[in-house]
Amino acid sequence: MPTNKISFQYNKSTIATGIAIVFHVIGLVGILFFDRSFFIKTSAINLLLMFLLILYTQSNINRYFLYFILISFITGISVEIIGTSTGYLFGAYQYGNVLGPSIRNVPWIIGINWFMIIYCCGMFIQKLLHTMIQQLDANPTVSKPFLKSLSILVDGATIAVLFDWLMEPIAIKLGYWKWNADIPTYNYICWFVISLLLLFVFNKMKFEKNNIFAVHLLMIQALFFLLLRTFL
Length: 232
Fold this sequence. Notes:
Structural class: mainly alpha
Number of strands: 4
Shape: globular
Strand order of the largest sheet: 1-4
Largest sheet: 2 strands, antiparallel
Mean pLDDT: 89
């Protein structure tokens, strides 16, 4: 990639990261110290803004990237509809009314959120593996493409599950959704399997996977939910 293109992409990521930090700090302070109900109702707007920032920072948007968004959205909405309607996926739970317009009682922003979580986890593992894969150049017995693909799938799905585990108690307190009983282990198993399948699609789709903002966004959101989990 040309140096000027790298510099331009870095500047876009820096701008997007700054915006993401500001909005998450405002949301954190607002929920903890001011009108909690007002700031909770802006959650869908914040998620939509983060989605637009991902589009802004994704270099060379092509049809494969758009396919991945569509597949992630449809998959996310579909499994959530099945989950809330039957309890066969994730367990017995229902969404509240704070996340905006719904499709069959599932807020449509949840489909966008599925895309963002999988995309950010995939990008995080891509960046993490970059140096590790380079260090294997001297070892011809190791299949680097296989190792990379396996790590993206398994490690990425594990991070997605950990992110869900971190978010669950806060999402319940904020009224995003509620469980009819305790959160079942089955929920996290389903999260892992579905994340694994979507990360397989992520790995196979031919679009640029070098979005540093996605890595920053994952860390910002994880810290956001960690602080809420600690102080709320």
